[in-house]
Amino acid sequence: MISDIKKEKIIRKGAEASLYYGHWFEKEVIFKYRIPKKYRIEELDKRIRTERTLNEARALIKVKNYGINVPPVFEIDSSNSTIIMKYIKGNKLKDVLSELNNDQKIKYFNKIGKIIGTLHKNGHIHGDITTSNIIITPDENIFLIDFGLHEYSDTIEDKSVDLHLLKRVLLSSHGKDYEYCFNSFLKGYKSKIRSPKYEEIIKNVNAIETRGRYVKSDQRL
Amino acid sequence: MKSLNLCLGIESTAHTFGIGVVTFEGDVLSSINATYFPEEGGLHPVMVRESHLNAFFDTISKALIRAKVSINDINLIAFSQSPGMGPVLKIGAWVARLLNQILNIPIVGVNHCVAHIEIGRLLCQIEDPLVLYISGGNTIVSAFESERYQIFGETLDLAIGNMIDSFARDAGLQHPGGPKIEKLALMSNNYIPLPYVVKGMDLSFSGLYTAAKYLIQSTDYGNKYNLNDVAYSLQETAFGMLTEVTERALAHTEKKEVLLTGGVAANKRLQSMIEYISKEHDARFEVVPLKFAGDNGAMIGWAGILRYKAEGGHTISETIIKPKERMDQITIPWRS
Q1: Residues B263 and B320 in one domain
Q2: Predicted local distance difference test score (pLDDT) of residue A219
Q3: One domain, residues B40 and B178
Q4: Are residues B154 and B272 in the same domain?
Q5: Which of B 247-266 lie inside 8 A of A, CB atoms?
Q6: Is B325 touching A (CB cutoff 8 A)?
Q7: Given this model, what pLDDT does residue A220 score?
Q8: Distance CA B123, CA B78 (A)
Q9: Cβ B147 vs Cβ B153: under 8 Å
Q10: What is the mean pLDDT of chain B?
Q11: Which of residues 1-40 of B touch A (CB under 8 A)?
């Protein structure tokens, strides 16, 4: 049957994984292969790659239940740290953001806020929300990808770290769009996360930024 | 008007009180440190403050003698204004204001993290690097992007140096524990699984610290494994995390240079890991020379010169310390 599964071309070589385009029983698919990292000792590296592969596959299957667009998983090969999933046609938000007008940006970030809010409401933490992990399809749907750092959690801390990561990416890579994009994101997010939880999360996002330095515990926000 | 050519830099954010004499052309004439070592425990801000208060005059004198200049030859005072321990920052700011008023020369406040990057760029002759800045108080992956040193990744709780030092202290080793842990780790290749926590490009070390602490409190300690094994596992896990986020940031920013700085940059194992990923991404890899990778006055002097040249000095009311200022809150006019 192996002839029915074939990798055809590499489409992206990321820091963590290589993505290959190919076919799986006549379906267009992506082979996501987590590359061995030689800087880590083998034992640790193997553990991380296997964990993240399984973690991602499970998360992709679970979050679909909440109506969130993610690529369907077709096959998991944990010993080769590979997931075979449906090929989603579209562009990374990172690459198209500068081509969008302000109204489109606001619309998309509001939707993204709702998506992340839905995840958080149901105890899912994405773990790596960046503009590279959001796909905009030609028919303007939003797909969320890369769930390797996904966690199950209902704590304020984990949810606020998730938001902190997005805030960080917007600030560092899309500085001039940050303010209204993030505000629009928060509006969407707030529509899914009720008070006072929403306020607690936002307060903690700010507190995170003062950590890791010489800040006394009583000076923290 | 006197021609400006010498800056005295004052570092006082944590355990090091450092004085550096630097020319406006970027020659470091001297760099003298007085470092506080606690007899036991960690760094208590008040104890550090007292130590620096006792050491400042002597340190300035030594730095001037080493540079073969008189205090009257100094044309600019630079001091570490942020971030750091409040009581300790105050000593630097206080000494700087004293000299500023006695000598009647300009004063300029400097962000400590920016100074680490700038001295690295100067000494390694590197233009636009991705920086991994790791020390007792900071764990930051940064690069220059739209007028600022943006923070791409950072610790969400403990700084890497603080984490290793704290663990070393729990294991009965004296401060600073980092170099001792590095030596012990060389004597093991028995990896004990520990929590590996990467969140996007950010890191969390608190769970790793607790897990390592439990290992040395366990009844298996001394039977199934020893301190060398825990030191090895701690380093491999923590450095694996650091290298992973650095690689992510490198892939994201597509910079062609990587600069390793801060006190923890001295660790050879970490150096080899960062060098490996730099090669993989065709980036030039540099480590800031050891003497200037840790906290020092020369880096404050050089960053002060850059800011002074770009936008002049600060008024006394602008020299208030900012213990919590983030590196990405300030613009970098000399690179724009």
Answers
A1: no
A2: 40
A3: no
A4: yes
A5: 247-248, 250-252
A6: no
A7: 38
A8: 19
A9: no
A10: 95
A11: 13-14
For residue A137, what are its two tokens? Answer: 């399809």
Tokens in use for A140?
């303007």
Q: Is B1 part of any domain?
A: no
B251 and A171 within 8 Å at the Cβ level: the answer is no
Give residue-wise pLDDT tens across range A19-74: 999 999 999 999 999 999 999 999 999 999 999 999 999 999 999 999 999 999 99
Q: In this predicted structure, which of A62-71, B2-11, B271-280 has the lowest mean pLDDT?
A: B2-11
Chain A interface includes B273 (CB < 8 A)? yes
The pLDDT of residue A1 is: 45
Determine the number of helices (DSSP H) and then strands (DSSP E) in chain B. 10, 12
Contact A165 B201 (CB under 8 A): yes
Residue with tokens 């100067």: B122
Q: What fold characterizes domain A91-208?
A: Transferase(Phosphotransferase); domain 1 (1.10.510)
Domain extent, residue B193, equals 127-287
Interface A–B counts its CB contacts (< 8 A) at: 114
> What is the nearest CA distance from A38 to chain B, expressed in angstroms?
8
Contact residues, chain B, for A45 at CB < 8 Å: 240
- Residue B140 counted as domain residue: yes
Cβ contacts of B326 on chain A, cutoff 8 Å: 209
CATH T-level topology, domain A2-86: Phosphorylase Kinase; domain 1 (3.30.200)
Q: Which residues pair with B149 in a beta bridge?
A: B144
Residue B330 pLDDT more than 80? yes
pLDDT tens digit sequence for B24-39 = 999 999 999 999 988 8
- pLDDT higher than threshold 50 for residue A18: yes
Cβ-contact A20, A33 below 8 angstroms: yes
Interface of B with A in 71-130 (CB under 8 A): 83-85
CB contact under 8 A, A15 and B139: no
Q: Is B241 part of a structural domain of the chain?
A: yes
Query: Is position B13 within any domain?
Result: yes
- Residues of A designated as active site: 128
DSSP letter, residue B286: E
Query: Cα B241–A52–A202 angle (5° rounding)?
Result: 70
Q: Is A144 on the interface with B (CB under 8 A)?
A: no
Residue spans of alpha helices (H) in chain B: 45-67, 86-103, 112-123, 160-170, 178-185, 206-217, 227-253, 268-280, 290-293, 297-311
Establish if A156 touches chain B: CB-CB under 8 angstroms.
no
Alpha-helical segments (H) within A22-126: 42-63, 93-96, 102-121
* pTM for the whole structure: 0.89
